[in-house]
Amino acid sequence: DPETNETTNVPLAIFNVEPKKRIRFRMINSLSWTCPVELTIQNHTLTIIGTDGEDVKPKNVTTLNTFS
C-alpha cells in the first residue's frame, strides 16, 4: 500500500520439477498499480517469451515484476 508503505508477503509455493525439464508458467495479473507482484525462482533464470498475448524476443531475467 503506497499510503502506508505496508506489503503483503505470501508463503512460498513449491513446485517439484524433473531435472532437465522445461516448465512454462502463465502469469495472469488482474491486480492494480497499488499491488505489484514479484516472481522469482530461487537459483533459476526465467525467460520471458510473451506479454499481453503477444510474442516478444526472449529475454532472460532473474526476477519478473508485474503490474496490472
UniProtKB/TrEMBL annotation:
It holds the Pfam family Cu-oxidase. It comes from the Eukaryota. Transmembrane segments: none annotated. Gene3D superfamilies: Cupredoxins - blue copper proteins. Residues 6-65 form the Plastocyanin-like domain. This is Plastocyanin-like domain-containing protein. It comes from Bracon brevicornis.
